[in-house]
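REVIEWER CHECKLIST
Item 1: Sequence provided? yes
Item 2: Single chain? yes
Item 3: Sequence as submitted:
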Amino acid sequence: MIASVPTPRELLTIAVEVARDAAATAHRMRAEGVSVAATKSTATDVVTAADRAVERQVLAALRDRRPGDAVLGEEYGGAGAVAGDGVRWIVDPIDGTVNYLYGLPYCAVSLAAEVAGEVVAGVVRNVFTGEEWTATAGGGAWRDGRRLRCSAEADLGQALVATGFGYDAGRRAHQARVVAELIPHVRDIRRMGAAALDLCLAAEGRVDAYFEKGLAAWDLAAGGLVAREAGLLVTGLSGRPAGPDLALAAPPALHGPLHTRLADLDAAGGP
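Item 4: Structure as written out by the authors:
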C-alpha cells in the first residue's frame, strides 16, 4: 500500500507545532546565556550552541512525526533522500544568528515543507516576540488570523526597501555599493539581519520590497512562500529564479522598476 501524500494544511500543522517548540527552546537558551560554538564562512559568520541544539530538536521532532521524510538543515545539511512525491523539510533553526547573539529581537525559526520540489507549507516564528507567519501553496499567507496582502505602493521613489549583507568582506563591499547607488531612488533602505523575517514583513507591507544576494534554501523557503502567497513576485534577476545569485520580492507594480534598477547596478554580481 502506497502512503498518500499529505496535504499542505496537514504539513503546515506539523510545521507550526515543531517551530513553536523550537522557538521556545531558542528563547530559553538565550535567556540562559548564549555562546559561539563555531564560525562558518568568516570569523563573523557565527554558529551558536543554540543553532545546533534547536536544529537537533527539529530533526528529532520531524523524525518522530514523519520518519520517512528527508530534511535539509542549515547546520547539519541533508538527511534522507527524496523519492517521487516525497516530502523534504527545510529548516533554519535560528535565522538571524548575529541578532540572536546580541539579544536583538529580530531572529526566527523557519521551517518549510517541500513536495516534489515545490514548497507547499511554511512557518516563520520570531524567537523573541512570538510573531508567527504561515502559508500554504494556494491557501494564502497569514499572521494572527489575518490574511496578508503585500504593499500597494507603485512608486519606486516612495518604496521602503529591505536588504541584507553577506559575511564575506568582498561581497559586503559590492552590496554596499549597490545600496549606495539605489538609495537615492527609493524612500529608504532597511537592513535588519534576518532574511525570513524580511520576507514576512514584505508580505504584510511593513516594508514595500526586499532583495538580497547570497540566500540559501533555508533562508528563502518558508519566508518566500509567505511572500508569494501575499501577492509578491519572488524572483531572481533576468529571468532567473530567486536563489543565491539574488532574491527579489516585490509587489507587481514595483517589481519591474526595482528589477531594472538592480540589474543596472549588477546586484547579482560581485563575489
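Item 5: Key structural point noted by reviewer: The chain has a mean pLDDT of 93.
Item 6: Recommendation: ____
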